[in-house]
Amino acid sequence: MPEAIVRRNRTPSLFWVAVAVLAMISLGDSAVAQGRGGFGGGGAPAASAMDSAPVDLRGYWVSIVTEDWIERMAPDSPPSGTGGGRGGFGGGGGGGEAVISNPDEPCRVYGAAGSLRVPGRLNINWVDDSTLQLEMDAGTQTRTFNFAPAGPPPTENSLQGYSVATWDTGGGGRGGRGRGAPAPPAWGSLRVVTTNLTGGYLLTSRSSYSDNTVLTEHFTHHSDFGQDYMTVTAVVVDGASTRATSSTFKKEADGSRFSPSGCEVSR
User: Fold this and answer.
1) Is residue 68 a contact partner of residue 180, using CB atoms and an 8 Å limit?
2) Which residues, in sequence order, are bridge partners of residue 166?
3) Which residues contact residue 139 at a Cβ distance below 8 angstroms, ignoring those fewer than 6 apart?
4) Which helix (H) or strand (E) holds 232?
5) Taking the CB of residue 213, how many other CB atoms lie within 10 A of it?
6) Strand 141-146 vs strand 204-209: parallel, antiparallel, or unpaired?
7) pLDDT of residue 108
8) What DSSP assignment string belongs to 109-136?
9) For 155-191, what is each residue's pLDDT tens digit?
10) What is the pTM of this model?
């Protein structure tokens, strides 16, 4: 009887030993794969910005106007570079209206700090492993987000400025995967800092920004009942003036409704 009990106990012991061996092999393979993918280990090169993206922002997006509806949508307040109402730069500019030297007068509303406030559609795609491109059909403008900038920023200013991008991630927990490797991010957003801007308008000439503006944006992906959304929170710092906005976009199935129009100057 005791011998039978010993034999019965031996079988599960061997089973769990086999499971443990297989688990160790699997972890070893995972660590190697993670090393190749940029999680460290073995001196492998880090993953590219595209490969390490915590969220996928590619595709076509359409504006969902959730704030400043009257100024953004009312027919008597068209999103044009010449603005409306009182004319000039006054009201709400605050940061340095006299220092605007944008030669593209008709396109000022389509500069980086104001363009996403103009209702329209976006097309986001990777140009290469470290460069993300955002095209806007409103104003026919293109912005370039550089994850691995080569050298210092340009000395000249432009309508879309110079943008440096990083991934803001977190929530990966403790312990990571594999031998001391960090845990993969549980969430993340795209952070873009833009400088070297020519001054422009935040939607209309009633609110402007100057050449000295620094624009910081976070592109955050979220979903609701199976529908993908993206919210862009922007902080516009222009001298002593700081303004914050948020613009929300809904993902579309394809680019059939993406129709560039308006200002055709893209600098």
Assistant:
1) no
2) 191
3) 107, 109, 110, 115, 118, 120, 262, 263
4) strand 227-238
5) 30
6) unpaired
7) 85
8) GGSTTTGGGSS-EEEEEEEETTEEEEEE
9) 899 999 999 999 998 765 544 444 555 655 667 999 9
10) 0.71
- Domain ranges in the chain are 1-47, 59-252
Higher model confidence: residue 233 or residue 176? 233
Answer yes or no: are the C-beta atoms of 225 and 235 closer than 8 Å: no
CA 203/CA 80 separation, integer angstroms: 8
In this predicted structure, the answer to whether residue 47 has a pLDDT above a threshold of 60 is yes
CB 199 within 8 A of CB 185: no
Residue 97 token pair: 């209206």
> What pLDDT does residue 105 have?
66
167 vs 139, which has greater pLDDT?
A: 167
Alpha-carbon distance values, 55 to 8, 39, 94, 135, 213 (Å): 50, 17, 36, 19, 28
- CATH 1.10.1740 is right for the domain spanning 59-252: no
